[in-house]
Design a protein that fits this description.
Elements lengths: L1 E12 L10 E6 L5 E2 L10 E11 L10 E2 L10 E8 L8 E9 L8 E7 L17 E11 L8 H8 L11 H8 L3 H14 L3 H15 L12 H13 L1 H18 L16 H20 L7 H17 L6 H20 L13 H19 L11 H7 L5 H14 L15 E10 L11 E9 L2 E5 L8 E4 L5 E4 L10 E5 L5 E5 L3 H15 L8 E2 L4 E2 L2 E2 L13 E2 L14 H14 L1 H16 L16 H31 L13 H17 L1
Parallel strand pairs: 4-5
Antiparallel strand pairs: 1-4, 1-9, 2-3, 2-6, 6-7, 8-9, 10-11, 10-16, 11-12, 12-13, 14-15, 15-16, 17-20, 18-19
Length: 690
């Protein structure tokens, strides 16, 4: 059984002012790490309107790792949502506690949605001098959902309908797109859709299809992907799931340093503290921005494959739609990787698991200034100084008005949006990814040649892998990227040499290379794998040892063309495997369709209206995107039929559950409120039918 909650923290009124200021934020907790709202500056009546999702799973029905596990669904009644209000303090001893509220979940099981105002209460060990009435109040909206997940075959019709969404023409007539149309918020639909499509390997074609449709509807290239559309929310959710490790390896080391060292970086003359020097602060901030900019623009090879493939489709759709705008292929990608990924992670590292807590005010200010600058550097806008309303930011940005920064951003965007390319030569200028001296074993192109080891200068671009005698010399050998079929480690026993790896090419040709150390060997393997992983003829098996003295040392096979004996390792560390249950996500989507059934029926009416009348749309139907009424109607009919079938299965499950279980048994002990509620509901239904 899976139980989902989403808690919307709406607003507060009358919060206490502490030490002459009130910069409140809220934390929401349910049996695990707390989630945090943004800090609202200089107000004791903040309006948050932020949503937090929680999930509870019963292990007996779902044996994969989940957010919070419980042994019995009825234990939910003992749990509670806790909302704490804090004042973001400038004092060294930390933020001040303003008050809390605790909401037992047993109230939510009686109603799927619950909204009310609460007086904030003091903690048991909190400040006793504050009276409850002095703490202000908070309006909170909590939605409770409990799902029973059936076995996989129950979901086949609905799941198949969803998974073929990318192939439906037009995509607005697909089941997944329709879910985004009827849900109150796009994110509500995006979360289960992204997880489902990731699980079945269909996320890239789906996002490519909805992105292409959105680009076609966009009139101005400057507004491309700027709205909170289903496309934007799905890409955001994909980056959160697939890109978390990428953020850790890219940003965490320098974010940790910024949080620990506390260098003064304030560049607003009005906010300078006594004893601080404006020029020194600017230099401190410039160094931080330079370092973060460098690690980001050098991290292209670590960008997860699924993100690169999505960026490739965005780039191609934008370039095709706005052929006269040469920058749109970059801004379409930068609007996500910089604006929605790196900049928010720098601004609020605790929300991206880069830091355990909300940074102190000085560090938070430093991260805000860095985030603003990085976001502007990544935007590639022509008039960047105009992007800042603060004159001190425009002055500071003059440090970065050099072409090398724009070139670095474009090279980075080229790399992360060219992963899906089959024709690597289509990029005008090759991007240098890595170079350096290594030792290689001669490939034996001459039948009687000596296969000795020689030191060579290796160079890798997104076009080819080459080596020459020294840096700058003419290449002695060039291997096109499309000819790299696998890159794997080589066992030490082959040549009694450490840190070796092999580059496998067509016709069983293998280049054996020794790196300077184990770190370099791993870097080379990762980068070579990254640029070649979209090759159509990549191998699935390889020989972990060399072919010497008439046989393979690993499997003892005598023929040099014997297929490999070990599966290829394939992906990179950044391409983490996500722990997703497709049936659970399909059940969640069913629940959403069931919840918004009135909107599905209204959309059916809209299809009939658009098909029959060739005139202006009725106002009540104008919120729906319907490009093909006939195809959309067909899909809606299948959705409603599938939801109806699952609804009957759930009703039968509930009837069987209570009929086959004796009151007082382990499953339903005496005092089981859910059982008593069911009996009461059944009595009411029977009386109504009579």
């Amino acid at each position: 059984v899976c139980i989902f909650f989403f808690s919307r923290v709406l607003e507060c009124q009358g919060l206490p002012i502490v030490n002459g200021q009130c910069d409140p934020y809220a934390t929401v907790t349910l049996a695990g790490p707390s989630r945090q709202t943004k800090v609202k500056k200089k107000t004791n009546n903040p309006h948050f309107d932020e949503v937090f999702y929680f999930e509870v799973t019963r292990p007996s029905s779902y044996n994969k790792k989940s957010h919070f596990d419980i042994e019995d669904v009825d234990e939910v009644d003992k749990m509670e949502i806790r909302v704490d209000l804090w004042n973001a303090s400038n004092l060294k001893f930390g933020d001040e506690f303003l008050g809390e509220l605790r909401l037992p979940l047993k109230f939510l099981r009686q109603s799927s949605s619950y909204e009310a105002w609460y007086f904030l209460q003091p903690r048991d060990n909190g400040n006793k001098s504050l009276k409850p009435d002095d703490l202000g109040s908070l309006r909170l909206n909590v939605v409770y959902t409990e799902d029973h997940v059936f076995s996989s075959d129950y979901y086949s019709p609905l799941r198949d309908l969803l998974l073929k969404s990318a192939d439906v023409e037009p995509v607005s007539a697909s089941a997944a797109h329709i879910l985004g149309e009827v849900c109150r918020e796009k994110q509500e639909a995006a979360i289960p859709l992204v997880r489902l499509f990731l699980h079945y390997g269909r996320i890239v074609p789906f996002i490519s299809a909805i992105a292409s449709a959105e680009v076609k509807r966009t009139q101005d290239p400057n507004t491309i992907f700027r709205g909170n559309s289903l496309t934007s929310k799905c890409i955001d959710e994909t980056m959160k799931l697939a890109g978390m490790h990428y953020l850790q390896v890219t940003l965490k080391p320098i974010i940790d340093e910024i949080c620990q060292v506390h260098k003064p970086c304030e560049i607003d003359p009005v906010k300078l503290k006594d004893g601080e020097n404006l020029e020194n602060n600017r230099e401190n901030l410039r160094q931080y921005v330079d370092r973060i900019f460098t690690v980001i623009t050098k991290s292209g090879v670590s960008c997860p494959t699924v993100m690169c493939d999505i960026f490739f489709s965005l780039r191609e759709s934008a370039a095709k739609r706005f052929q006269g705008d040469l920058d749109v292929r970059y801004t379409a990608v930068s609007s996500f990787i910089f604006l929605r990924f790196f900049a928010p992670a720098i601004l609020s590292p605790n929300l991206f698991q880069l830091t355990p807590h909300h940074p102190d005010p000085q560090t938070s200010r430093t991260l805000t200034l860095i985030s603003k600058t990085i976001q502007t550097l990544g935007s590639l806008s022509k008039s960047k100084s105009a992007n800042f309303k603060e004159s001190y930011m425009a002055t500071f940005y003059d440090y970065f008005n050099e072409q090398k920064y724009a070139d670095a951003v474009k090279n980075f965007l080229d790399l992360i949006s060219s992963s899906g390319r089959r024709d690597h030569k289509s990029i005008e200028q090759p991007i240098l990814l890595k170079e350096g001296f290594m030792i290689k074993r001669a490939q034996g192109r001459k039948r009687f040649g000596m296969k000795n080891f020689k030191k060579r200068w290796f160079r890798l671009t997104n076009h080819e892998f080459t080596y020459q005698k020294s840096k700058g010399d003419h290449p002695l050998c060039s291997i096109p990227i499309e000819n790299i079929l696998a890159v794997e480690r080589l066992e030490e026993e082959s040549f009694k040499m450490k840190n070796m790896f092999q580059v496998i090419q067509p016709e069983r040709r293998v280049l054996y290379i020794q790196a300077n150390n184990c770190v370099e060997a791993k870097d080379w393997i990762d980068i070579l794998t990254k640029v070649s992983q979209c090759n159509k003829k990549r191998l699935t098996v390889y020989h972990p040892s060399a072919y010497l003295n008439g046989h393979w040392l690993c499997c003892k096979a005598t023929a040099d063309n014997t297929p490999g004996c070990t599966p290829c390792t394939g992906g990179l560390p950044a391409n983490i495997q996500l722990d997703i249950d497709g049936d659970r996500e399909t059940e969640r989507i069913y629940s959403l369709f069931n919840l918004y059934m009135p909107k599905l029926e209204k959309m059916q009416e809209a299809c009939g209206s658009k098909s029959v009348y060739d005139g202006p749309e009725e106002e009540e139907y104008s919120t729906f995107i319907i490009d093909d009424p006939k195809e959309t109607y067909k899909t809606l009919k299948l959705i409603i039929e599938g939801v109806g079938t699952l609804e009957q299965e759930h009703a039968q499950y509930k009837r069987d559950k209570f009929k086959k279980t004796k009151y007082g048994s382990q499953e339903h002990p005496i005092g089981d409120k859910s059982f008593q509620t069911y009996i009461r509901q059944q009595s009411e239904i029977s009386a109504h039918s009579i």
